[in-house]
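Hi W., the nicotinamide-adenine-dinucleotide complex you wanted:
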Amino acid sequence: MLQPDRSTSFPSRLLGQHALVTGASQGIGRAVAVRLAQEGATVAINYVDHPERAEESLALARTASSDRGHGKLDHIIVKADVSNEQEVGTMFETVLARFKRLDCLVNNAGFQKESPSDALDIDTYRRIIDVNLNGAVLCAQKALAHFVARGGGGSIINCSSVHQIIPKPDYLAYSISKGGMANLTRTLALEFAGRGIRVNAVGPGAIDTPINDAWRDDPKKRGEVTSHIPLGRVGTPEEIAAVFAFLASDDASYITGQTLYACGGLTLYPAFRDNWAS
Ligand code: NAD
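Structure:
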């Protein structure tokens, strides 16, 4: 399958912006932090564990911004469990004390766990909703309070999933959390549009990150996954990060309340791609 040429340069649309990316110590969050830094933003990299991975993301963000000629931007790492109200409060205090302002929040932190729905342990269910959905709400509240207090708008971008609209059997809590992202995004977008605040979401398909360790290094399982994807391949974190950067930028200045699916066509009912008589 043809891979896109990512050696081409892209614009620096985020000069002067300050952004916070949750769950940015690996995977999509790391790629988003790096891409925002490449485009000129100063980035706060949130992590909950493995500080050494957050340090790696920090080093990558620093290199990314200096390689692109943005000098030494003041990127930071900041620890917090996004489901913990107190830790989220402290994280925002830390970020705002350092940056003085925030322009963009990326709600990326999330995880999933497989279980038949009728046997799903209720504590696991609660934890997934708490991190994936309630964590995004807690962070959004803090960002919105800041955007409103300082005036001049701001942007929130939620990391949803194709499972915002495609059911995911055996992943009930995850499906519910991403379904909830739709109305989180749309409700906040409508409520705060009058104050110049845009709220959008990105819906990735199957992306090559650690959340997919169950299949990404197994050729047979990976083949099963790609056989469902119209573009015929798994996506890269960088391809998803590019969508976040677009939504954070003024190129998306008239877009709010939307979920932009970056999924290689997964949302197109691929099972119907061959002629099918109803
Ligand atoms: P990942 O497992 O590599 O990264 C998830 C990140 O979230 C990790 O850095 C983890 O430490 C962090 N995290 C988990 N719980 C946290 C908490 N309580 N507080 C703060 N951070 C926490 O997986 P990924 O693929 O990079 O996932 C990122 C986001 O993308 C998730 O919201 C996921 O649902 C979404 N997504 C991923 C895919 C995919 O195929 N990879 C597809 C659709 C959506």
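The pocket of nicotinamide-adenine-dinucleotide is lined by residues 22-23, 25-29, 46, 48, 81-83, 108-111, 131, 135, 159, 161, 204, 206-207, 209-212 (CB under 6 Å).

W.
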